[in-house]
Specification:
Layout: H1 3-10, H2 36-64, H3 74-93, H4 103-111, H5 117-141, H6 143-148, H7 162-183, H8 186-191, H9 200-218, H10 224-234, H11 237-242, H12 245-265, H13 268-273
Helix pairs in contact: 2-3, 2-5, 3-9, 4-5, 4-7, 4-12, 5-10, 7-9, 7-12
Protein name: Major intrinsic protein
GO molecular function: channel activity
Membrane topology: Multi-pass membrane protein
Length: 282
């Protein structure tokens, strides 16, 4: 092991590092199951995803029930609803659960050893259950419009192939997860401390921008819980046929973002090989 790896793993500051990387999470941490903080985090993820789906899917249905071309919030307003809710909910839950609200984000952070396997799987289950309940509330409150206007469910738009939709979901999720890593990177925070940035802001803005690009293609998934929750409640054959795209795409995008940030930008692969020892800032 090189001296740099020792510095990363044991937080030694021989080269004057002004930031501290947290130790990697264990793969299986059974001790978490005995902690109230673990279950509190699951509750936070469940409620946050419920609120996220309720507000955003209600916005989609509310827009679609308008008859005039200038009525409703429009696609721009839908994108703001998704991005704005992520900003609000990440801000509210970051200190409790980390504010994932998305299985793809959880998966990316698991790959980067930020959360254990037990926490990652538990978060994904809580997120999917929260999404189902959130969309269920929309259907309960807007049943007629919900059933006749698509249920806010993700599916591939006419004129686009499954390959195109998959690519859009991969790139869109890459943008989101890459932003999550960058916004929460302790090295970036130390380096750019003179530019204070509230982490939920760029994350929410990334969701907003991705929606602008991909709503016409897939309705924008980039969140398997969001797509799954809407599919369960709407229960349409076309939606289920396309569902795999909204799981495979986000998970591949999250994997790519985690690898890019950890092994290229943070040079974890180079440090593991002991190369470039003269430039520890890489």
């Amino acid at each position: 092991m090189s001296k740099e790896v020792s510095e990363e793993g044991h937080q030694v500051h021989h080269h004057g590092k002004d930031y501290t990387d947290p130790p990697p999470a264990p793969l299986l941490d059974m001790g978490e199951l005995k902690l109230w903080s673990f279950y509190r985090a699951l509750i936070a993820e469940f409620i946050a995803t419920l609120l996220f789906l309720y507000v955003t899917v209600a916005t989609v249905i509310g827009h679609k029930k308008q008859t005039g071309p200038c009525d409703g919030v429009g696609l721009l307003g839908i994108a703001w609803a998704f991005g704005g809710m992520i900003f609000i909910l990440v801000y509210c839950t970051a200190g409790i659960s980390g504010g994932h609200i998305n299985p793809a984000v959880t998966f990316g952070l698991f790959l980067a050893r930020k959360v254990s396997l037990i926490r990652a799987v538990s978060y994904m289950v809580a997120q999917c259950l929260g999404a189902i309940c959130g969309v269920g509330l929309v259907k309960a409150f807007m049943k007629h419009y919900y059933n006749t206007l698509g249920g806010g469910a993700n599916s591939i738009a006419p004129g686009y192939s499954k390959g195109t939709a998959l690519g859009a979901e991969i790139i869109g999720t890459f943008v989101l997860v890459y932003t999550v890593f960058s916004a929460t990177d302790p090295k970036r925070s130390a380096r750019d401390s003179h530019v204070p940035v509230l982490a939920p802001l760029p994350i929410g803005f990334a969701v907003f921008m991705v929606h602008l690009a991909t709503i016409p293609i897939t309705g924008t998934g980039i969140n398997p819980a969001r797509s799954f929750g809407a599919a369960v409640i709407y229960n349409n054959e076309k939606v289920w046929d396309d569902q795999w795209v909204f799981w495979v795409g986000p998970f591949v995008g999250a994997l790519a973002a985690a690898a890019y940030h950890q092994y290229v930008l943070r040079a974890a692969a180079i440090k593991a090989l002991g190369s470039f020892r003269s430039n520890p800032s890489n």
